[in-house]
Amino acid sequence: MKALEGKVALVAGATRGAGRGIARALGEAGAIVYCSGRSTRRHPATAGRPETIDETAEMIVRHGGRAIAVRTDHRKPAQVRRLIDRIRKEQGRLDVLVNDIWGGDAWLDWWWKEMKFWKISLERGFEVIDTAFRTHVITAHEAIPLMLETKGPRLIAGITDGDGYYYRGQFYYDFAKTNVIRMAFALAYELRKQKIAAVAITPGFLRSESMLDIMHVTEENWRDAGKKRPEWLESETPMLVGRAVAALAADRHVMKKTGRVYNSSELAREYGFTDVDGRVPRIWEYLAEKMPHFPYKKCDDVFYSYWGGFGDGIDAEVKKIQREVEGRRTSKT
User: Fold this and answer.
1) Whole-number pLDDT of residue 312
2) Is residue 2 domain-resident?
3) pTM value?
């Protein structure tokens, strides 16, 4: 049996890259997958990119899965609300939510040309925040009520870049990707009693459609780029991070992992899956061994200890403050 048979998943940002791989892997595992994003055949949204959510859904169906493409601008709460209402009406449940919206392909013309925070216009900067992080907040806010109505293991996964707290080279990129990790912790705390797990997941060196183009190779001859960029030989297809999400979604004990960030390779070794070519890339080990100047240190138990646990002490303190505030209001009236 497929591990996610009968489950319903929403992948926000299923057009290309990690989102497409995650949607395909969830379909591979038996879930009904709603593929959302702005790019459709009738309404392409990213200049120069041919990928669409229609194509992603067709890939899932072609391999025996079930998928529905729904054009949604996740920057607009009303559109996200309509999407969730449709899932409620058609399926009556939502087991898995994946927030993968990033939108970086739209910014390649200027993204790495200007690195200094004070030289990037506020309009451009806030556009990044709105697309790459605010969308995650909007989508989770609208989807969680339906997830609360759903029984069984449930998972919210935010897709980030890197499983450490190092600086990611550019202010707005760092802000968005780091806060995906922080959002996982915050949601994990708020949803722990409802038994909804919230995690952040990072791929390694991702062979997305855009990266293949940048490297001037295809998926058929991708290794050729390793001559100039040897770390590229430890890259992965979007299916590896997809199978990581699917493995977590199928884990009945996923609550043990809530509130943390994981990389696709470590989950592959733990759960026993591989990339489509049978490999489990070792990009993080490569960076540690070959690029010691790279400021990489994975978030560990010591790091998480500074965030605090999931005990009831904070809740008790908040309730105490609420009682005091209400008491002052009552005395004034």
Assistant:
1) 59
2) no
3) 0.93
Residue 283 forms part of a structural domain: yes
The rounded distance, in Å, linking the Cα atoms of 281 and 137 is 31
Give the model confidence (pLDDT) of 76-118 as tens digits: 999 999 999 999 999 999 999 999 998 887 777 777 777 899 9
Q: Which domain holds residue 242?
A: 8-332
Lowest mean pLDDT among 53-67, 111-125, 146-160, 313-327: 313-327
Give how many domains the chain has, as a whole number. Answer: 1
Helix (H), strand (E) at residue 283: helix 283-290
What is the CATH number for 191? Answer: 3.40.50.720
Residue type, 168: R
What b/e string do you get for 245-263 counting C-beta neighbours within 10 Å, with b at 16 or more? bbbbbbbeebbebbbbbbb
Written as six digits, the tokens of 58 are 């067709």
- Burial status of residue 93 (CB atoms within 10 A of its CB: 0-12, 13-18, 19 or more): middle
Quote the CA–CA distance of 66 and 26 in Å, as a whole number.
10
Number of DSSP helices (H) and strands (E) in the chain, helices first: 12, 7
1 in a structural domain: no
* Cβ–Cβ under 8 Å, residues 162 and 295: no
